[in-house]
Design a protein that fits this description.
- By secondary structure, the protein is of the alpha/beta class.
- It has one domain: Rossmann fold, CATH 3.40.50.1820.
- The chain is about 40% helix and about 15% strand.
- The chain contains 12 helices and 8 strands.
- Strands 1-2-4-3-5-6-7-8 form an 8-stranded mixed sheet, sandwiched between helices.
- Strand 3, helix 2 and strand 4 form a beta-alpha-beta unit.
- The longest helix has 18 residues.
- The chain is globular, with a radius of gyration of 18 Å.
């Protein structure tokens, strides 16, 4: 029986982008195509698999593109210094390779930050696409409001380098860390958490966590650019937020609405940091209510 990871891999292909091997899934609409392609951007430390429960519903009337950022999931995991700019470059290269000129964008966690860089580039005329609508979910868009976990703080205190496998980070410890970001009432199955962790550990990706988490330092340095673009980009903005998120607290969503009063917000009261996995049915209902 194929593992969940291998089933996910079977849906996609590998692309050479910016000199790296990137895994992406490009699915056409299952019905009549009526909307622009939807590009998903996942967060730290997981992968495109985070959105698996949404794909069948979302692709009814549109093409969907999901991929693993460099250093994540099934994409190449080089021992390099990672940056938001490089991740954005890969998105630009992927959409160019796929011939996408108009798109909708769905972002979560670190994907919100990469999305902010892409929004800024588009507004500057440095990315020749049109972003027509946006859906944003739990991420530390106002980093000074974030309640970083002990694990995140530990990784940030480490040197920006790949570390030896001393058995400290195991599948079980990763599962525990992910589960700690969920709402207390979460019913996420162990098999789902195990699949997320398997994606992290492919090609020893767990040994790169101290390198990958540096996006938080970049966010602190460049919040005006990233969050400024999220707030000011003219495309319609929808927000779905897990209210019980212990890291990207719900007050962030409220603050975003103050800066962008035309945005639409749906709170999922019974979800934490991964609302699309913790409460996929409620998430899909919220998407439908928001016109997605």
């Amino acid at each position: 029986m194929l593992s969940e990871v291998r089933k996910w891999e079977a849906l996609g292909s590998y692309y050479e982008l910016c000199g790296y091997r990137i895994f992406a899934i490009d699915l056409g609409p299952s019905g009549i195509e009526e909307r622009e392609p939807l590009v998903f951007l996942h967060g730290f430390p997981t992968s495109s698999y985070d959105f698996y429960a949404l794909v069948d519903r979302v692709r009814r009337d549109r093409r969907v593109v999901l991929f693993d950022l460099l250093g994540y999931g099934l994409s190449e995991k080089p021992d390099i210094r990672y940056s938001i700019g490089l991740q954005a470059d890969i998105v630009v290269a992927l959409t160019g390779t796929l011939g996408i000129e108009r798109l909708s964008m769905f972002t979560h966690d670190m994907g919100d930050t990469v999305g902010g860089e892409l929004l800024a580039r588009e507004m500057e005329g440095a990315w020749s696409v049109e972003i027509v609508e946006r859906l944003l979910t739990n991420g530390s868009i106002y980093i000074e409001m974030a309640h970083l976990s002990a694990g995140q703080e530990m990784l940030l205190e480490m040197a920006d380098e790949k570390f030896e496998d001393l058995g400290v980070i195991t599948r079980e410890s990763l599962m525990e860390s992910l589960r700690a970001t969920h709402a207390p009432s979460s019913t996420v199955r162990d098999s789902e958490l195990a699949a997320q962790c398997e994606m992290i550990m492919v090609n020893d990706g767990h040994l790169l966590l101290a390198r990958l988490i540096r996006y938080i330092e970049e966010r602190r340095q460049n919040q005006g650019r990233y969050t400024g673009a999220i707030e000011s980009h003219p495309a319609p903005l929808s927000v779905i937020w897990g209210a019980k998120d212990p890291i990207a607290v719900s007050e962030m969503a409220a603050r975003l609405l103050l800066a962008r009063p035309d945005a639409q917000l749906r709170m999922i009261e019974s979800a934490g940091h991964f609302p699309m996995i913790e409460r996929p049915d409620e998430f899909l209902i919220a998407m439908s209510e928001l016109g997605w």
